[in-house]
Amino acid sequence: MAERARVPPREGPAPVPRPAPPAGALRIAIVGAEGPGKSALAVGLAEALAGSTGLACPAVPEWLRAWCEREGRTPRPDEQAAIAAEQHARIECAAAAHDIVVADTTALMTAVYSRLLFGDRSLEAMAIAWQRRMSITLLTAVDLPWQADGHQRDGPHVQAPVDALVGDLLAAHRLPWVRVGGQGPARLRSALEAVTPMLPARNAG
Questions:
Q1: From the centroid of its chain, how far is CA 140?
Q2: Angle CA 19–94–2, to nearest 5
Q3: CA distances from 136 to 16, 31, 106 (A)
């Protein structure tokens, strides 16, 4: 079952209403700590949505993975901004040409790792602004065994702080998000349960 995020009430003035995501493609972002099956979920979800709707639905791969494979290392602090921008550009390019887009991570994750690894919060405002363009964000639960993945992963000790910070940022900025989890097919069902209610309105429009 998908665990729908709850935003705790705030004291003081009512928050300023946030603009809705742009019209056009349904943008589904998958984010979370390293190792919880984001890439497999992105591909599986894109295939399931394409099959159930008959609409074009690509999975936009993680640019950081390709970057690390090309360079043979992880990025320096000064390279993070360009990686975040390229990830966002690839999502927007796919959204311009398709009805539904599933993004295997977003610039938000680059900002989170920049903060945790380098103490750099300079990417957060940009990443949050770009994250608002996502129709919904799926935050993957840390309930799968951690696996090494070449240069890209730091270790299981990083999972909990990354997961906590991502959830805090999504909640603090009142972005629409749902936590998804489960083993094997249950994980895909959890994601489909979260996004399926959004499909009829989009198709009807």
A1: 9
A2: 60
A3: 19, 11, 12
CA distance 152 to 172: 28
CB 1 within 8 A of CB 193: yes
Which are the contacts of 67, defined by CB distance < 8 A and separation ≥ 6?
A: 75, 83, 86
The whole-model pTM stands at: 0.82
Torsion of CA 137, 142, 147, 150, to 10 degrees: 40
Ranges under pLDDT 70 in the chain = 1-23, 36, 144-156, 200-205
Shortest CA distance to 43 belongs to which of 58, 24, 64, 62? 58
For the record, the structure tokens of 146 come out as 């951690």
Chain center to CA of 44? 15
pLDDT of residue 204: 45
Give the type of residue at 75: P
Q: Which residues of 93-129 are buried (b: 16+ CB within 10 A; e: fewer)?
A: ebbeebbbbbbbbbbbbbbbbbbeeeebeebbebbbe
pLDDT in tens, 159-168: 889 999 999 9
Q: Strand, coil or helix: what is 9?
A: coil
CB 98 within 8 A of CB 57: yes
Nearest to 135, CA basis, from 40, 19, 47? 19
Which residues, 6+ apart, have CB-to-CB distance to 13 below 8 Å? none
31 forms bridges with which residues in the sheet? 139
